[in-house]
Amino acid sequence: MTSSTALLTDRYELTMLQGALADGTADRRCVFEVFTRRLPHGRRYGVLAGTGRVLEALADFRFGAEELDWLARERVVDDATLEYLSTYRFTGSVRGYAEGEMFFPHSPVLTVEGTFAEAVLLETVVLSVLNYDSAIASAASRMTSAAIGRPVLEMGARRAHEQAAVAAARAAAVAGFAGTSNLEAGRRYGLPTIGTAAHAFTLLHDDEEAAFAAQVASSGPGTTLLVDTYDVRRGVERAVAAAGTGLGAVRLDSGDLGVLAQEVRAQLDGLGAHGTKIVVTSDLDEYAIASLAVAPVDTYGVGTSLVTGSGAPTCGMVYKLVAREGSDGRLAPVAKASTSKGSVGGRKSAARRLDGDGRAVEEVVVGGDDAAVRAWTPDADDLRALVVPLVIDGEVCPGWTGAEGVTAAAARHAASRDELPRGARRLSADEAAIPTVTLTV
Amino acid sequence: MTSSTALLTDRYELTMLQGALADGTADRRCVFEVFTRRLPHGRRYGVLAGTGRVLEALADFRFGAEELDWLARERVVDDATLEYLSTYRFTGSVRGYAEGEMFFPHSPVLTVEGTFAEAVLLETVVLSVLNYDSAIASAASRMTSAAIGRPVLEMGARRAHEQAAVAAARAAAVAGFAGTSNLEAGRRYGLPTIGTAAHAFTLLHDDEEAAFAAQVASSGPGTTLLVDTYDVRRGVERAVAAAGTGLGAVRLDSGDLGVLAQEVRAQLDGLGAHGTKIVVTSDLDEYAIASLAVAPVDTYGVGTSLVTGSGAPTCGMVYKLVAREGSDGRLAPVAKASTSKGSVGGRKSAARRLDGDGRAVEEVVVGGDDAAVRAWTPDADDLRALVVPLVIDGEVCPGWTGAEGVTAAAARHAASRDELPRGARRLSADEAAIPTVTLTV
Fold first, then answer.
1. Probe site for chain A from B1, B10, B212, B224 (most A CB atoms < 10 A)
2. Which residues form the Nicotinate/nicotinamide phosphoribosyltransferase domain (chains A, B) (predicted)?
3. Segment 222-281 of chain A within 8 Å of chain B by CB
């Protein structure tokens, strides 16, 4: 398998390219904008994630011999188009919100500028990455919010496509998760990895005592013992017997976790294991986490609901042509006219308006004269600019990719979430936390 | 990036391995079973997909220098475990349902047998693949059912992780989709790829006439023209003017599709374009498809709802140790005892009981004496065996992987779906179409 990302692309991008190469419009300068028309039902904000992965995918977006041979064999495009693809390299520019930033309806989270040919080809992979990663980060942010400072761990690999799982672990880290069970995510993005044992390890052994003894011998008393394979009370007893009062943690993966955590805490304390922590897993989502706020739980492990976006498994982000060079050589705004999907043409910029306490009050989308928008920077103290350069003339700007990009995105997410108005973090369904308004320049 | 799948694994699989290697239980013969406790709410059947991809991932499940170096550097496991991993190769056996087969609660869709060490490591990647792919195929099957024979095309890449999108296209093909927009899925699994143009192509041009002329010049009159960028009625007029009455199809991507399709059909017929087909897209799901049954629609394109499993973005499949060699050297059934997650121990086989008309009436799960289950074959004419060999002593059986595997799975899906009882294919929420019963041998 090649590492090229070039065929992670809808066929019509290549068919359009062929048509545009044939009639000379392929070279027209174009501005494509990524935005969403609405947040998932009831969600108050979205979290942009995946920008770093978009930039990584861009670097591998090359049509090599394997890709070109297949396209030729399948007659997907004609020879002139194959010729163009053989030297394809994105030479345009990308600007957008910093990864980890909050977004709202019509926030221009990414803007791609280049010729039609070079920019149209990126649509599918850009949207795949941003829609999935942002869906996960948006759910993850609600979970870390609900955990009121307790660590939340990502354990959802088994409930997502095996590569999506890696991206989910990364997106969770952007939104404040403290670790992941996913080894590949650890390797690729420098995330802390966690995990000790499943029920299978206990069942493998002749009895629970033997299993706990083996785990403690192998991983030390600081390990986390899973105590609900047979009977939780006996499990806790045996866990402390095996590891001593220095046992790191016990994990509960079933039952009424709130009640159970109370009982287990009392039992651990009674056994003198005051420092032993309680980790709970078992189909948690942000609501279950919130409901455990008063329980003596130290750490949450989240799986299914994280990797499926907790009810919103994708975002509705679209990649729309908003301006293009006409036959007169001038850049002109364009937009689909018909029906309810109407979009606003023209290049945009954006800022967040803050009140005197530094709380967000408005998402300001800046539109108008192309040169003015391009050059726009906030001219008032209460506006925080949101758009940063990501790719300049085909060169990826440093700091956004790899482990470094994830660290920066997590910091951005934390700062921007702190800036949300009071009430924006409650879980109940409501409108977007701040309105999106338009500023014409 | 290496092509190894070995780190698409939860850390605890390796931690358990280390513990078991240290105390000598790693060599115990084990049987792990993949099954689901329930179907998603209201679903009447599930469709198993991903088996071919599991077998492909198994072939690449090797710890190479890059993986071992990272594990050593991060001190994920000790030296003895690294030594074991460096020569890891699955030498056990895998049996399971043929890909494309229907499944129900407790259907033993995959059984992995080997030493604890070699079988436990596969848990995460096996579940990632089967849970995602089966979720997509299960949704896709409802869509092809609702389409009553009209072709359904997969166009969801932009709403899924970029690699998950490839798997989704494949799973959709298993469930009867006729094509995909995803080029990589076309290349990897030999699927027909489709797609002509987006709104961006029309907007790129000075007007719709120029865009249609360019597309017809480049792709021929048999192409599909997207007619809703400005005004549908004018769009259809211009489409037929550009391509002639031999125009392949028009695509509608917005609006009230049922009404619009009627109007467009009448307009096309009025223009003499009787053979021009109507393709509808725009956020379709199985319900929208069903509601268009009486509309003059020729082809459906489905995106978001397909790649997100139409409300059920994952399956609840688990990978459970059901039997293992004890200290006496004999294989014994095991199962987690506590709380509501109780599982049934022991190896299983399965068959589907059919009535005199060849309609499914029961899912028969066969359990009991290990040797008897292992050797079990249906002894009655009304039982169709469901379990087939997939890997024997580490060797993948031919026919299940690559393009060949997808073709076989699509055939299996079609035949098994035809066998479902009347009413099983209606979309409204209900119980599993057939009950799961146990047969002890």
1. B10
2. 153-212
3. 228-232, 253-255
Categorise residue B259: left if φ over 0, alpha if ψ from -120 to 50, beta otherwise. Answer: alpha
CATH number of B196-296: 3.20.20.70
Q: Where are the domains of chain B?
A: 11-137+312-440, 196-296
Q: B267 near B243, Cβ under 8 Å?
A: no
Which residues in chain A have Cβ-Cβ distances shorter than 8 Å to B7?
183-184, 187
d(CA A46, CA A142): 10
Report the C-alpha gap between A320 and B201 in whole angstroms.
Answer: 11
ipTM field: 0.97
Selecting from B162, B320, B335 the residue whose C-beta is nearest the C-beta of A125 gives B162
CA distance linking residue A167 with residue A154, whole number of Å: 11
- Burial level of B407, CB count in 10 A (0-12/13-18/19+)? middle
**Nearest C-alpha neighbor of B37 from the set B104, B128, B111, B130:** B104
Residue-wise pLDDT tens digits, B339-392: 455 567 899 999 999 999 999 999 999 999 999 999 999 988 899 999 999 999
- Euclidean distance between CA atoms A179 and B76, whole angstroms: 14
Specify burial of residue B434 (Cβ count, 10 A radius: 0-12, 13-18, 19+): buried
Same fold, A11-137+312-440 and A196-280: no
Asked whether the beta carbons of residue B10 and residue A158 sit closer than 8 angstroms, the reply is yes
In 3D, which of B98, B121, B128, B108 has the Cα closest to residue B405? B98
Evaluate whether A332 touches B204 at the Cβ level (below 8 Å): no
- Give A374-420 pLDDT, tens digit per residue: 999 998 889 999 999 999 999 999 999 999 999 999 999 999 999 99
Angstrom CA distances, B142 to B29, B45, B411, B430, stand at 40, 10, 16, 14
Q: Are B418 and B410 in contact (CB under 8 A)?
A: no
Q: Which of A70, A128, A189 to mutate to test the interface with B (most CBs of B within 10 A)?
A: A128
Kind plus residue range of the DSSP H or E element containing A189:
helix A183-189
CB of A203 closer than 8 Å to CB of B325: no
CA dist B150 and B153 (Å) reads 10
CATH annotation of A196-280? 3.20.20.70
- Domain B11-137+312-440: CATH superfamily, name plus number: nicotinate phosphoribosyltransferase (3.20.140.10)
- The whole-angstrom separation of Cα B245 and Cα B275 is 8
**What sign does the dihedral B32-B34-B38-B41 (CA atoms) show?**
positive
Longest CA–CA span in chain A (Å) reads: 82
Looking at CA atoms only, how far is residue B45 from chain A in angstroms? 19
Cα distance between the two ends of chain A: 48
Name the residue type at position B84.
Y
For helices A162-174 and B162-174, angle between their N-to-C axes, nearest 10 degrees = 140
A70 contacts in chain B (CB < 8 Å): 186-187
Structure tokens, B211: 């865009």
CA distances for A313 relative to A139, B19, B36, B321, angstroms = 9, 36, 21, 30
User: pLDDT tens for residues A46-92?
Assistant: 999 999 999 999 999 999 999 999 999 999 999 999 999 999 999 99
Strand partners, B193: B180
Q: Are B370 and B133 in contact (CB under 8 A)?
A: no
What distance in Å separates the CA atoms of residue B88 and residue A52, rounded to the nearest whole number?
33
Q: Looking at this protein, which amino acid is placed at residue A220? A: G
Do the Cβ atoms of A230 and B338 come within 8 Å? yes
Q: Are A71 and A13 in contact (CB under 8 A)?
A: no
**Vertex A116, ends B211 and B237: CA angle to 5°?**
10
